[in-house]
Specification:
374 residues, ADP-ribosylglycohydrolase fold, 16 helices, mainly alpha, globular
């Protein structure tokens, strides 16, 4: 790492950060989903030595005009809508439970996958997002996400769903908790934990989700990237053994990033991701790979657009859970720089890359969130 820390991006507007996070996350998801189940050798065979480079190139190779997002972005948008419903109730002066709002939103997502709510589930009234049928496609949803929501009752902290699962399905949808303006850290962590245990009850699953949400919150407050990634450490230290794997994964990511910054090779090429970071299938590995990708890209790129491009390549070009890791990396860079990652400062659908199939719903989610929180 360089000795001088980058200055806080206080020049980035809140609306730009909101859309930047959602759009860059969707971009990473779409790139990673196209190669999620490909080995490094397969990626090299399909795409050449550079592997995944950018959306238009990958769409052309795939023979499509636009690339779809996976269940990761679907669930992120539904969690966002659950939090949005809670905020709307708050704005109207009505008490509501944020965890219940998120659970109902996740049940509505499950209905798009299963065609119906599970037996005994409370009624979940349609909202704006449910009319977007492009989100109803089944695109590799996480098994723990499905089983946790299909089982009876709502997962709660004393009685979580899938108590042995620490898959990345909780962390990949946790950004919205860090996007709420003015939310104190202990509330961010609590909301992320309550959202995680709906489907993933292992301590590492919820601590990684909370750590990512806390990082997003720090970025929205204008922190530089490394400082934002170090921000959850005090909270993680308070979690004892529950947060041990998450702490170790973040420490490893920061150390590997420092080494990669000094390297002269193409750190985004297939097969260059440090093996010590894992493959991203579990929560702490997904968090670590995203942190590594964003940090290396931030240090080596000359501008925000180049930083996003490199972060997404690092997040996608490996053997593991490419859509989740690239989506999380994109969210970090998008939260840091806003829509400058696309060379734009707009907050409408035209500002979201045309090669993302779900660009309009991403833009609408951002507009609705911004309207309710400003």
């Amino acid at each position: 790492m360089t000795d001088a820390a980058p200055s806080p991006r206080t020049d980035v507007s809140y609306p730009s950060r909101v859309l930047g996070l959602l759009a860059a996350g969707a971009a990473g998801d779409a790139l990673g989903y196209a190669v999620e189940f490909d080995s490094v050798d397969r990626i090299l065979g399909r795409l050449g030595a550079a592997g995944v480079t950018d959306g238009p190139a990958l769409a052309a190779v795939s023979g499509v005009s636009a690339l779809p997002v996976s269940g990761d972005t679907q669930m992120t948008l539904y969690v966002l809508d659950g939090m949005l419903e809670w905020i709307e109730w708050q704005n109207a002066g009505q008490a509501s439970d944020p965890a219940a709002c998120v659970w109902l939103a996740c049940l509505r997502w499950l209905r798009t996958q299963d065609g119906a709510l599970p037996d005994g589930a409370p009624p979940a009234q349609d909202r704006w997002i449910d009319a977007h049928t492009e989100l109803h496609a089944q695109r590799a949803p996480g098994m723990a996400c499905l089983s946790g929501l299909r089982s009876s009752g709502m997962g709660v902290v004393p009685d979580p769903k899938n108590p042995d699962s620490k898959g990345c399905g909780a962390v990949m949808r946790s950004a919205p908790y860090g996007m709420v303006p003015g939310l104190e850290d202990h509330h961010v962590a609590s909301f992320a934990r309550q959202g995680a245990v709906l489907t993933h009850g292992h301590p590492t699953g919820w601590t990684a989700a909370a750590a990512f949400a806390l990082t997003v919150s720090a970025l929205f407050d204008g922190a530089e990237l490394r400082g934002a990634l170090e921000h959850p450490r005090t909270w993680l230290d308070s979690t004892g053994e529950d947060g041990a794997e998450t702490r170790a994964a973040l420490d490893g990511a920061l150390a590997e990033a420092a080494r990669a910054v000094e390297a002269g090779d193409d750190v985004g090429a297939p097969g260059t991701l440090p093996a010590s970071l894992g493959e991203g299938w579990v929560a702490e590995e997904a968090l670590a790979i995203a942190a590594y990708a964003a940090l290396v890209a931030e240090a080596r790129a000359e501008d925000p657009a180049a930083a996003l491009g490199l972060a997404l390549r690092i997040g996608a070009n490996h053997d593991g859970d490419s859509d989740s890791t690239a989506a999380l990396a994109g969210q970090l860079v998008g939260a840091r720089h806003g829509m400058a990652v696309f060379g734009s400062r707009g907050q409408d659908a035209d500002s979201v890359p045309a090669w993302i199939t779900e660009r309009e719903v991403v833009a609408e989610a951002a507009r609705r969130w911004i309207a309710a929180t400003t």
